Amino acid sequence: MKYSKIIDTIYQSVLSADNLGKVPTYIPELAQVNPDKFGVYFYSLNKQSYGIGDCDEKFSAQSISKVLALSLAYSIIGDQLWRRVDVEPSGTSFNSLIQLEADNGIPRNPLINSGAIVVCDILLSILEDAQADFLTFVRELANDDSINYSILVAESEKSVGYRNFALCYYIKSLGNIENDPIEVLNFYFKLCSLELTCKSMAYIFSFLANDGIRMHDRVQILTETCTKRVNALMQTCGFYDESGEFAFKVGLPGKSGVGGGIVALLPNQYSIAVWSPKLNNKGNSYRGMKFLEEFTAQTHTSIF
Question: What residues does substrate bind to (predicted)?
């Protein structure tokens, strides 16, 4: 299939329609981003690739990084991970405190804020230098040593991250954080500040479309079973409390971030990344959702 022509057509159609939604103003640095940016990059496992628009411009990965932190922790400790974090959709917003008390400090899944904070704590306990080791992991997935955190974004998030502070201290009080909460939060804010392009993001996530195997050197990052489980979590939990809607309309495992990025993949075939900063009322990229819904409809590709 010639994906480039379909991508061009959908891109122009979405670009010419209304760009609804709002950039997130609660993180000061993200509020500065040009709301009209729009990029798409497609990467297939047979090495067909195609990009359009602002696909080479760096943006804040935000929650998309949570999948990579999960993958790193899972690759090291395996199923022990699930003693500390559950695998159920939350049904509440990504920064909700409500369920933690009922669930004795075990977050519903690793892709909401509380779950990612616990994953950060796990990585701090098992790695010598979690911030540096995580960055190395991402650079190796991307085959690109230029990838980095944004100190400006990390500091900006920290300055207003009261709810994340509350989540971390609350989980600590319930016995599911081992390290100093400030250390955990510093790592969490750094993790979310990771800067990627649509091109690098599509390539990084190709290992999850490829049975856990990195494309450029054939290194097995996750076993086939673990890869299937990470993809299942993206399918059921990757879009906050709009995950059901994304499964219904798009039908791919994926993950969104409040930086306006969305990455999605079709196992054994391709990965695709979209970036447009204006978010809908669920915190997902308005144009990104529209593009991917149309893309899977026109290419007849979906896991269903």
Answer: 63, 113, 157, 164, 188, 240, 258
* Residue 26 counted as an annotated binding residue: no
The per-residue pLDDT of the chain, averaged, comes to 96
Q: Is residue 101 annotated as involved in ligand binding?
A: no
CA–CA distance, 280 with 106 (Å, rounded to integer): 28
**Is 11 annotated as contributing to ligand binding?**
no
Quick one: which of 248, 254, 259, 264 has its CA closest to 285? 259
DSSP string over 169-202: HHHHHTT---S-HHHHHHHHHHHHTEEE-HHHHH
Tell me whether residue 43 is annotated as binding.
no
C-alpha span between 114 and 164 (Å, rounded): 8
What is the mean predicted confidence (pLDDT) over 100-118?
Answer: 94
What are the residue numbers of the active site?
Answer: 63, 66, 188, 240, 258
pTM, 2 dp: 0.97
Fold classification of 3-299 (topology level): Beta-lactamase (3.40.710)
The tens digit of pLDDT for each residue in 31-54 reads 999 999 999 999 999 989 999 999
Question: Can you give the residue ranges of every domain in the chain?
Answer: 3-299
Is the per-residue pLDDT at 291 higher than 70? yes
